[in-house]
Amino acid sequence: MQSIRTLAIIKPDALRSGDAGKILTVIEDSGLTIEAARMFRLTREQAGEFYGVHKGKPFYEELLSFMTSGPCIALVLSGENTIARWRELMGATDPEKAAEGTIRKLYGTSVRFNACHGSDAPETARQEIAFFFSGSELPEN
Ligand code: CDP
Ligand code: MG
Fold it and tell me: For the whole model, what pTM was predicted?
């Protein structure tokens, strides 16, 4: 069965540009539910672990510098088909290729500084949620 939860992150660029509230509004207007939220600044170690799948890629070190450059907001979202719907609302990784009206098109400025993160599959969603949230921070479902 499709996992009903996903992990979203409002990245440091979007907080710096004052777009976090607008992104939260997109989520609320979409009908997805915000189950939990935390604001924090990642350490380099945490960012490296979170993005471990990209280790060795040419953009890895700069991605870690970006993700540790300021606070993030991590959110647990739920709803029908949440993983795919959140990725659709975000748009393509590169804002230039993202569809009109998507978050990355509206608030991203480059393939790196793209405003938000979303899990890509049920298993990664489970792992990513557990990375940032303890069981007691999440409502029972
Ligand atoms: O975030 P998404 O799953 O759409 O893309 P990804 O391929 O998993 O890449 C993770 C993150 O790395 C992106 O969201 C960008 O912030 C960053 N990235 C980058 O800095 N340079 C690239 N050429 C590709 C991705
Ligand atoms: Mg990804």
Answer: 0.97
Active site residues: 117
Any ligand 1 atom below 6 A from CB of 92? no
* Nearest protein Cα to ligand 1, atom 16: 112
Q: Name the helix (H) or strand (E) containing 113.
A: none
**136 CA distance to ligand 1 middle (Å):** 30
Question: Ligand 1 centre from 111 Cα, in Å?
Answer: 7
Domains, the chain, in order of start with CATH, read 5-134 (3.30.70.141)
pLDDT in tens, 59-88: 999 999 999 999 999 999 999 999 999 999
**pLDDT tens track for 25-42:** 999 999 999 999 999 999
- Burial class from Cβ neighbours inside 10 Å (0-12, 13-18, 19+) for residue 141 reads exposed
Element at 12 (helix H, strand E) = helix 12-16
